[in-house]
Amino acid sequence: MSAETETLPPQMRRRVTGLAIAAAIGGFLFGFDSSVVNGAVDAIESEFSLDPALTGFAVASALLGCAVGAYLAGSLADRIGRIKVMLIGAALFFISAIGCAAAFAVWDLILWRLVGGLGIGIASVIAPAYIAEVAPKGVRGTLASLQQLAITLGIFAALLSDFFIDQGAGGATEPFWFGWDAWRWMFLVGVVPAAVYGYLAWRLPESPRYLAAEGRQDEARQVLETIQPPDTVETTLSDIRRAIKADEQQKKASVRGPAFGLQPIVWVGIAIAIFQQFVGINVIFYYSTSLWTSVGFENNAALFSVITAITNVAVTFVAIWLVDKVGRKPLLLAGSIGMMLSLAAIAVSFSQATVDGDALSLPQPWGAIALVGANLFVVSFGATWGPIMWVLLGEMFPNRIRAAALGIGSAVNWIANFVVTVTFPILSDFSLPFTYGLYAFFALLSLVFTFFFVRETKGRALEEMDTESERPARRR
């Protein structure tokens, strides 16, 4: 625990943690929507008679909305405040859950998933930004990691609810309560986390940085007095004022720069966001039930998906424990190595598969190796790249471009997620060994990129990032 954290009274520590947890519930919506479709994929494909390409697009369509929501969230939050934007995100997801459950055609389902995506994209940007702005620097990484913990809990909750609904109805296509098919109830459950997020957001105080930027100094001071030691409040407020004044003197400052139209630090953020998705993590959570069924685990496919989700939750605590002790960069490097090796093991396993008509079968021990490899991949990702990307995007950019750069990075992350999700059914039809080998290659690239271009942000105040961003990352 840092010296800064130790000076916080217990009540204040609990309050800061509580604020971070409440804001991170937006990540729960992210994870829930990402995986709730898992149990419904086959039912949707059957209900609307979809081919693999259209199935992939229906699953991934929410991600396009997420990209737009993430891109708009930063500027919108600077205009109307962090809390109002959180409320908008909650409302959009609430409406989407009802719309998806009542969908009568594939285009209707896609429309409502786009609406939900807007809300999730907004939440994915605002949560790390808000946490970074209210958390003391000594524990900022730990608290920012709560975003990823919430994402993993959302994934787990979605897969668990899918499992129980599927078991209760006797299949995703079977009628459940009130005669509605089970897959529709899988989507409708989403109204619960959306309502909880909206209520918690409504109770949160506004970010002191936003209040100070709006000239509401007394309100900013009041918020700081509840989350920082009394003797640091005026110093922090003074630092915020200086940063705001610097922003005003550089009103023309933007993400644009000499490196292919953007500032170099923005490109680093974009690359981190792309690599986090191009290793194929969401293939596990979107398609795992269908995948394990296809390789001979049809009786336990849904259960294996839940176990994988539990693993994902558990290892996120490792990141929360290590991020402010070890640092961001070492965790990314270790994660890249682990992902590369486990993905390579999965690729080799699928190269041993036999095909009988449309049925894919993995002889033992290759089926077990693929299952173990998938879970080791989740461990490697969940303890490192999963949470650390959100930590870095929330703190690595200079103050004057943070909101815009974070929006761009998050939007790119959603677009990369969309590309992986929509292409997996097509690539898997072509060759599963090639597909997982491709993901392993991107894990290797992430290792090289992190080593040369990602800088450490552990223990640095947000205001320090303005000068830090001017130094070449490879010298750190």
Structural notes for this entry:
- This protein is an all-alpha fold and 476 residues long.
- It has one domain: Growth Hormone, Chain: A (Up-down Bundle).
- 75% of the residues lie in helices and 1% in strands.
- It has 21 helices and two strands.
- It has helices at residues 3-6, 10-36, 41-47, 52-80, 82-101, 106-134, 140-144, 146-169, 182-188, 191-203, 208-213, 217-227, 233-249, 264-278, 281-294, 301-322, 328-350, 366-395, 402-430, 432-453, 465-468, and strands spanning 354-356, 359-361.
- Strands 1-2 form a two-stranded antiparallel ribbon.
- α2 (10-36) crosses α8, α4 (52-80) runs parallel beside α6 and α4 (52-80) runs antiparallel to α19.
- The longest helix is centred in the last third of the chain and has 30 residues, at 366-395.
- It is globular, with a radius of gyration of 22 Å.
- The protein starts with a helix and ends in an 8-residue tail after the last helix.
- The relative contact order is 0.14.
- Residues 1-6 and 467-476 have low confidence and may be disordered.
